[in-house]
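Quick board copy: two proteins, each given as sequence then tokens.
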Amino acid sequence: MAPPLSADFRVLSTFAGEHATAFAIWYFTRFVSRQPRRNVMGSSWSRPRCSRTALALGLVAVLAGCSISAASVLNTAPSSAKASSSRLAVGSVTLTTVSFTWNWVEQRPKTSPSARDSYAMAYDAATKQLILFGGEVPSGITAFDDTWLWTGKTWQKLSPKVSPPAGLMGAAMAYDASTRQLIMFGGNTNLGEHESTTWAWTGASWKKLKPKTSPPALSYAACAYDAKSKQVIIFGGNANRSPGTQQTWDWTGTTWKRLSPKESPPAADDGSMTYDQSTGILVLFGGFGKTSGTPSSETWTWSGENWTLKSPKPTPPARGGAAIAFDDSTNQLLMFGGIGKGDGGTQSLGDTWEWSESGWFVPRPPNHPSGRFTSMTFDASTKQLVLFGGGSLSSDKDFNDTWLWEDQQS
């Protein structure tokens, strides 16, 4: 799959497309059109001479202008919620550019998990299942140990013979393509006890693994698979009720290995991390700091051995608990929502951001879920970017709605 164009090139292509079309129309009407024009030296009307060369160049200009204009619309679509459509008539032929609208579309599944936040969700490529496990309600008194499958149209509750501890929330989950295992680590229970256990999903049940080495008991750690280095990476997390660790761990397939990068993000929990397939880079954004719990607006990338702090412009406002995923069908790395700081203190965010190598950009979809901290995952079997539920600190409310990110064409 070709990588997405940079923001600078998108702007250039849009400029070129608009001006190429304008030049084509001007050239056609100025030198090719057989319509009479006014003689600038007098009041008489005359017909211009039209050579075969001028006619050929005119047609080339028209077609090139339309092609560049259409290409500019298609190339800018992933970073723009709306790309205007236009038509150019040449004789009896009408050329039309495609209009794209990137949008969040709420679904109406017949069955859904109950309203919750802090669940674990990931796509298992080996079994072709999008799996959701656990979570809690805002009070923290009720937590879940149920396992759900997204079918593409609705949610299906599964009945595994073995399950992780009841009331598990804030667990880290990712698919390890190297070993073809869906791995889940840590989390804490509604009793406030942190877990350091590792689980694998078999397709029908959960299996408790016994690695020789494990990270400390953690919850709300950032976790993702780095396809380039073939590592399942865990960073940060809340350890033993002490917010924000600074440790980086790698799942080897049988055990956990603590890494020692020269540079590292500040200690934090609830950061958002995913793999950018278009650039082959693992991207980490935000999280809550160890000392004050203040949300971060830093963007870091993982090379396989070391962390690098980026300086993107623009950048999203500081936040933790945002949903992040790469949409393989639209070739976009997207981030939604989270918990940030507003004028009145803590604020649940409802904005959508797209990452590229040159910075973060706002697609501005016409519709979107309400502000919340949540999770989303790309389902490769259905080609859907799925966002489910989550919670709002602003309203002290959880949700059980399901949203898809779609490119709507007209």
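And the next:
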Amino acid sequence: MRTVWLISSLLLSEILGASASQAQNLTPCPGESQDTGSASTKCTSAVMLESGSFHAVPLIDGASQSYGDPDHNIISLYGVYGNSESASSNAAAQAHYQQGLTQAAKITPLCKDGNPPPQLDNIYYPNCTDDTLPVIIFLYIGFSNFTIEMGGGSQDAWGAYVHLPGQPCSTKCPNLNNAGDVPPWNQAHDGVKQESLLYQIYRPTVPLVGPNVVVWNGALESQVLNRWDPSPAGYYENHACPYVFPPRMDPECNYDRVERDLGSATGNGNTGGYTDAQVQAIFLKSADEYPLCDLNHLYCTAGVTLPDAYQMEEYLGDIVRYLKCCEVGNLTPRYPSLQQVFITSRIYGGYANGEKHGRAPRDYDCENPEPFAYEGGFAVQRIIVGQINQAAGIQSSDPYSGEVDYTVAPWFDWGPYLWASGEVPRAFDGLNWCNGQGDKLCGQDQFDVREGDTNQPQYWGDFTHPTAMGTFKVANLLLQFMNETTGSTWVTPWIGE
């Protein structure tokens, strides 16, 4: 009997040991990172900064002071032009602001061929010749964070092993008029409501945008900036696109995926879906995955000298030129009706720094910690300033984004700026990002990024992707930006169509 007991104990010990070992090697939401390799080959020394210790002045609160880096980047939304083009006394900044208004006035509901409904004998026909509704597609593209903020997630992190309500994975969004006629947003059905942008827009009986406006979530997990860059510098120039069958090299991988998804929106009687020709405004939020060098060269991987903010700017230059021009290999514009592009950087990334719950850094900690999340804002600022200067004839090109004037790129500008210095409320609007600090700024149950299970460290949080709380904050900023009466003057002329 004792022998049987000993054998059973040993077997149980081995099983429990194996389970514990396997749990340590598990990954939450594995689809959110297509890259492979050990953290030691991806992480810079910045990851070992104490969690939440990085602080800086948000660009939107800046007074055009220097960041202090060797290139003297300026802390403001528009660099030397301050934080507002419309209030600027500079003619170049004012002209760029006015150009955005000009482009907004051109946006109108279009049929699938990119033309407005016909007018015969001075009679306006509300529908297209195929009896479908003409639409304005406002396309949102980017990575996993943006997918959650736009449409929520249908399952929780670690959902296969432990239930963590309010910590969603990035899962593909069903979008409006999907073939299954299900709501155009995700919920994990875990008792925590995810008030994503699409949920807030389309959940009310009367949607918060006009009947001819389609807000479309084209963002997807793992699709960081280089995966949206269709140039030879882009990821899918040399990697198989997983969204085509059979998988093959496709530099336009994500754009082809979005086109296919738009065409499949055949629910609710929407015959034939939508087309690229109906896309008239694009919103891009993404980042540079696994950054390797900061602007101050304090946390650069050996042998790397190009700061990731400048690498991001290069990707952005390639992307906006593609959006203006052509599909790869021909002169046909991908989005012939495109009038406006809005760009923004990511939320605070400082809670991913440091060792949390006593564990060593993992790949997820290195996806976009500080100071890289903050410095991504300079990439957006610099390319916008580049377009301001080039359109005004002040300079002919930018050393990183290249040529981005109106002849080679669409008009583009900031969407809502999302970064705040951790739990410190920013002066502009009081926005902050919490991590359960338990103080007067952030309650102990207030986590804006995934914290995992604090009682079971093997089910760790990545402190990078937004929780339901963080999603609500971003979605509210996006909603304010596109509010029909109080939103951006670049959007209000057409968002209620």
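Board note added afterward: Confidence is low (pLDDT under 50) at residues 1-24, 35-40, 357-361.
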